[in-house]
């Protein structure tokens, strides 16, 4: 036999072939860790957090198989590895997943195994357009050479499986189940903002119930619009925490302090006017195509500290409010932590019930316990008159006791009893909006921050559920529609703008549900629930201490989700570490300087201590002859997210760094997207609307 001639045997690789009896099993250390040698000795972090070392072998060299312990020939035909010997047999579902992997592998760099921006990386022995190779194992089954990276919380590499992908249409029962599950897992993001801003505006519990119903209605409508005419990704729209700080700054403006009459409606009309103008600016930014240009400046190193600063900025409100009834608030926080961390891997009928429903479960259990304690008399007023204002109570003991009992008792709100069974939210229900240019400018800047937040959500979610990331035109179209959605929020009067909620990515990764239809079905359910007035009344009756406890968890999650964007870059790079560190530090330190500037102990005594940081517009260091300019500058530089964004975007775009080190977002090329049917089906507008606007090249495929 010619093959037995020693002169014609293949040259051995860098490792001698191991005997069959000592071959490493598939669960070897090399497979589990993805170990690869790299001659330079440098390391890169993949999106799964593993340290992956990779060489760039010469063309035609033999590749050593670390798992089987034998040499694997690198025979290529037209740039593809030869695979005819063991063709994998896959089902339709697996073929769909494989096509998505193949398309995502095209954006990976040639010389690196770690994934860039979450897209599946090509193996080092192939051209960049090829997916990672599959080799035959001893039993004839196709096995990935690079192991799938899955972390505990569901953040997975692109080669993991989703239960339902973007265009999947499961049956009616799965659609209803997953749609309801998606919205319940994000309940806190939907309902907590009205529970904070309405009392701050002087609104009653009935006003809070009406605003909650309006938020549910607008969220359902804007979600349907976004999944149909925006990015078309399964992303829930709602009131973002990005708008909370500017809303509180406007609420606590000096001209609104000490107003007589209905403060709530007056301040709400001011908020509506500012939101409408800022939303129109955001719509122009998107539909004009300017967002496509702006995308070049937005990278993970910019998104991460900006979104993290949003969550960290409300520390003055969180636990100080929890401390008003510590035994209830602390239990609430502990329950949510136990469900989301210690019980996160517990599955019931294949679903991680405790991880998905951590917030509603913790709220329900704590609320039930507080109700039993209230009915049992543990929180009785002990002879103190609750009808006397706290300032007129002579006894110091009664003053403190009554104040504490109002926070601990669950029957202080009459919103559920006074709410009607049916109520239809309608535009301009609070009156005609009032427009002031200085408040509008503040909101316009904040709308840019909201757009940056949404860009990060678009990219991360597309890597999980779509065939490719969207094109810059699709991103511009989605930002433009978010602007129109916020106009609707301003007309209906939700108190904040409408944007893509950051928690979407976490929910999709945990539930592995990426079906567009399920989110649309859930949006329809949300619209129906918003018409039932008792639903808004029930949510408005949540005690304030429980709201603060939930917000502690939600804001911590928001900060962590923001920092998780760093997994698309080289998180260990000293360049990125310094930029992120400076951004976060100055986002806390600079606003602290503005917020304390010129404050005297006797100033604004009517404002609660946790709202003191938001009255900076009246006493900031900018004191020119133009009062409006003073208001804008003092307000903007007192927002943590604005300072973090400015520091990060300047440093990231001026400090030298490679694309891989910076983790530059990779968007699909328009021409390639039009040629690929899967991408076209993912992002093209429905009902042939795209054909009408085909000439608008900068806001589509």
UniProtKB/TrEMBL annotation:
* Predominant location category: membrane
- Biased composition, class Basic and acidic residues, residue ranges: 80-104
On whether DNA-binding is a keyword of this UniProt record, the answer is no
Task: Write the record's keywords in alphabetical order, separated by commas.
Answer: Membrane, Transmembrane, Transmembrane helix
Instruction: Tell me yes or no: is Membrane among this UniProt entry's keywords.
Output: yes
A GO term from the CC aspect:
membrane
Q: What is this protein called?
A: Nucleobase-ascorbate transporter 12
Database matches in Pfam families: Xan_ur_permease
Q: How does it sit in the membrane?
A: Multi-pass membrane protein
Region annotated Disordered sits at 1-149
The record's subcellular location field reads: Membrane
| Source organism | Liquidambar formosana
Q: Where are the transmembrane segments?
A: 183-202, 208-229, 241-259, 271-290, 297-315, 321-342, 354-373, 518-539, 545-564, 576-594, 631-651
Name the protein family: Belongs to the nucleobase:cation symporter-2 (NCS2) (TC 2.A.40) family.
Q: Output one GO MF annotation.
A: transmembrane transporter activity
Q: Which domain of life is it from?
A: Eukaryota
